[in-house]
Design a protein that fits this description.
By secondary structure, the protein is of the alpha+beta class. Helices cover 18% and strands 40% of the residues. Strands 1, 9, 10, 12, 13 and 17 form a 6-stranded mixed beta sheet that branches. A hairpin with a 2-residue loop joins strand 9 and strand 10. The C terminus is likely disordered.
Amino acid sequence: MNRDGVSDDRAVSPLIGAILLLAILMTMLALLQLNAVPALVSEAEFDHNQRVQGEMRDLAAGIDRSVTTGTSQSIILTPGVRYQSRMFLLNPPPATGTVRAGEPKTVTIENATAPGETGDYWNGSPKPIETRSLIYTPDYNEYHDAPQTVYDLGTVYNRVGETTLVTDGHQLVNGRTISLTALRGEVSHTSVDRTLLEVRPSSTGTRTVSVSGTESKPLTLSIPTELTKNQWKDILKNDGHVAEYECSATEQADEPCGTLTITLERNVTYEMQLSRVSVGDDSNTWTETYLTDIEGSNASVPAGGRQRLVTEVRDEFDNPVSGVSIEADVSSGPGTVTPTVSASGTDGRTAFVYEAPETVSGVQNITVEAAFGDSNRERVAFELQVWGEPADNPGQGNGGNPGQGNGTGNR
């Protein structure tokens, strides 16, 4: 036997074993790379998507806080995800996500009438309110059927194709209260790491306006929506003050609604609170829309007395607008009126003082008109009565403190 050959065989055997072991390890790594890594990546992306859905619900809560407090809110969103490092295995690049504003759409309030001077604006005619949704779209490497998550008019829902699932509903009608917050602004942000979305109050306040429909023309809300009639049924929670709700696109309760028309009870007064917030790029301007009376209308003033008259400038969301000059004059009857400030304050209000003449024969009807424009909604009229018996103390309106009266207009 060739002893050298035996030695050569013994030397080769460990080498072959090492090569086979390396091959097995490489095969195992390849199988892990091919099967385990995609599964781990998909799991990480699913967990991330659940977190982002929670962040979108935080966004909805932040918008509510901005409306309630009148302050800006910074909301953290994490559009993308980075994967945990794994020794000897390769991860795909980090996944990105996009947060963007949807196309503008119009919510319409119709047949809403308000009493008093506020009724010059809320007179039953259709009132369009422009708003947008906020949409989160992930771009994952493995979780290919991940949903988009949408914020729309306070409600958060997931969307895959035409299928939607509500994760946080907002009651637009709750008892006899109507609350609607519109969103405006341009947003389109794609990234991996967390970002701050600034929510700014554009037109917010805690006040409400009393509105109602009639027997023949009930108050209605028309809302473009991707949700189904069944989902709106759950959101509205069978509220007793909603008479009916219908979809424009389909009669099927489980198909996208198109435009939802909510019809409220007839001859019922509702308290309506409208607000608007801004995100991203937005001019964030307030526009004066109508004028209403707050104090002084229908007061009775003695000869030589004074009466305080207060107006309020409001925007289309019924919230105050500052810096608007209001002019007032006595359009009928004797007396004079003078402003106490040059323009509306942060509460939208401007005060005037009506002064009755020292001598008045009998009882006279007085009309004081205040306005910032020519249309009816931009003007208010204060109806007063001046009686001829001189006041015990000239300068006292209606027997009270100077500048105070007994009338209060619609708020």
